[in-house]
Amino acid sequence: MARKFCVLCGREEGEFIGSLCIDCYIKTKEIVSLPESIKGKYCKLCGAEWVNGKWIRSKDRTLTPVESIIYREIGKKIEVDPNVEEISYQIENIWKDVNGHTFVTLNIEGKIRGKPFTLTKVTDLNIERTLCTFCIRKKSRYYEAIIQLRFKEGKFDAKKRTVFESFFTDDIIDSLSDVVEGKEGVDYYFINKTVAKRLVSNFTSMVKDVKIMESYQDETIRNGKKFAKLVISVRV
Q1: What is the rounded distance in angstroms from the CA atom of residue 199 to the CA atom of residue 192?
Q2: Distance between CA atoms of 93 and 107, rounded to whole angstroms?
Q3: Which of 33, 61, 128, 159 is most buried per CB count within 10 Å?
């Protein structure tokens, strides 16, 4: 039987893939391939990312929006040699060339047939900083609903306001486009009326003796459908 040897280095012992020893296979083969360019966009105000046609906020607060986009796109588009058994990658740095073009350098580690390998790869970044729909609406003070917080005693009550605002969650705060404080109480302007109604529902489920009244204002007709701003009076 003919003795097997590596056609590049002549090694005769150890693990082989085809006519190459593991070391020469790792050195000469494109075992990991990255996309030529990583594309994406994120909101420069709130950090939301454009994913599959909609704005999404990453739950991983340890990553910047750019890092989150890089890892997500690499995970979808990386091509790996079928002999690779394990692989992981980390961002080493994000940098610009002399022309101001942005790139990312990735450190890649893995194993082929039990043999560890490390690679350094660079790919182009084409990530746009823009404004998401919510932030555009906030800047224009757009709103679909108003919650009018009022007090039964007829005068401003800071303690009751604090109790009401203790029900604010992140998505409720995100939906606020304006807050106006007056002598009689506070008006909260919401981009999304569903969020406003959910806040009132949560509040009244926990706090008793609250009077709620709903009405509508600024009714318009668009494409044959009626649209109006919801006004919820919350008297505590």
Answers
A1: 11
A2: 9
A3: 33
